């Protein structure tokens, strides 16, 4: 993957210029998947610069490697729309910190990828650019969803349009589509990567993350993005050293917890069998595998839904059309009329419904009943995780999604709120507590769709999590399965 590309670039069996050109052609040939909403076609100068650096031996860690960016990260001089009419003409004057660091490491930003509007969804179907199609088992009139909200980034990686991509994860928005698309999706510990330039959805849960074909590729990309940022007060200096990542990980010293509460209603038999298969595999290699209880899991999704809506209502209040964003061209007699009409015309139904829900929860008469109670329950959920780590468990292994990727027609049969409550059941607890989580593909289902597993670790234990995931990935060898 990235290591192989880097070797070929160093050995001059492939030039950065050719790689850039081939990547653009590949994106064009697979445009029917609708993974990209904007392709950056003026990277020739960067490709030439990378080619020269590789020739004279001054290459940087990601020299000439094409990487895609989800369209809710600010990119200087390149449209950043959040797949919404509200920001359809927004062109940032600066790069998000993680994007800036990728470019400084020599990566070529190849384009912006599709997402649910303002990242509110689990299918990448609620976008002004239309839905993104899953590359697995895709037929002209019958295809599976990509998952969301980082579906565009995951399809771009799964289909080979790029080797890695940036996504954002608020309640599973990287892990959900990564699971559906059969790629690796990594959500780091909250505070490990800078959120500066990531257009906020839920400030207390949003994290930038990485999608790639392998765990080692994730580590390679992560290594250039870690570090404190004076522009983001939530980004901490942990001195986390990715050089400590070792491929000779020893599983026999690890204790792995299997949370009983994740065996929930709606979990398909195939996903349950895959979960059991992974647990037995770990056990066969002398890892200690035991069931654990996390009693507040069942109320986690309700708590997440309330807090999500409350922070959405707060964050979306900036989009009035007065200073930036879409402004209605109709005649208005008051500022209130202008703001109301602009928001009604520019924001989709899903976004408007979350704003209304959040404002309802935040009413003075409801504040204690919903918002404050949800914060208390969030603390209890976090304590569930802390109790597991205090009991000397190293990792938790759970399903990522309850089923394989549904067909678009099946997904559309339920409303967005119901779909998110179902699809995010296993993923959003990690965002509530801030711990790192990763999903890796395990095998194909009977209908030839990927089934993945999720691994979680204690906060800032990201490197050991990635080591374990890499060990498991090597044993599973999903990468040998071809589309």
Strands, helices and their partners?
Layout: H1 2-11, H2 16-29, E1 36-39, H3 44-56, E2 66-70, H4 97-104, E3 108-113, H5 151-158, E4 164-169, H6 175-181, E5 184-187, E6 207-212, H7 215-225, E7 255-259, H8 269-284, E8 288-292, H9 300-316, H10 335-346, H11 349-361, H12 367-390, E9 395-399, H13 408-412, H14 416-423, H15 428-433, E10 437-444, E11 450-457, H16 462-476
Parallel strand pairs: 2-3, 2-4, 7-8, 7-9
Antiparallel strand pairs: 1-3, 4-6, 5-6, 5-10, 9-11, 10-11
Helix pairs in contact: 2-3, 9-11, 9-12
Describe, in plain words, how this protein is organized in 3D.
With about 475 residues, this protein is an alpha/beta fold. It has a domain at about 1-250 and about 405-410 and about 435-475: Amidase signature (AS) domain (Amidase signature (AS) enzymes, Alpha-Beta Complex). Helix content is about 40%, strand content about 15%. The chain is built from 16 helices and eleven strands. The chain has helices at about 1-10, 15-30, 45-55, 95-105, 150-160, 175-180, 215-225, 270-285, 300-315, 335-345, 350-360, 365-390, 410, 415-425, 430-435, 460-475; strands spanning about 35-40, 65-70, 110-115, 165-170, 185, 205-210, 255-260, 290, 395-400, 435-445, 450-455. α2 (about 15-30) packs antiparallel against α3 (about 45-55). The protein is globular, with a radius of gyration of 22 Å. The mean pLDDT is about 95. Belongs to the amidase family. GatA subfamily. Allows the formation of correctly charged Gln-tRNA(Gln) through the transamidation of misacylated Glu-tRNA(Gln) in the mitochondria. The reaction takes place in the presence of glutamine and ATP through an activated gamma-phospho-Glu-tRNA(Gln). Its EC number is 6.3.5.7.
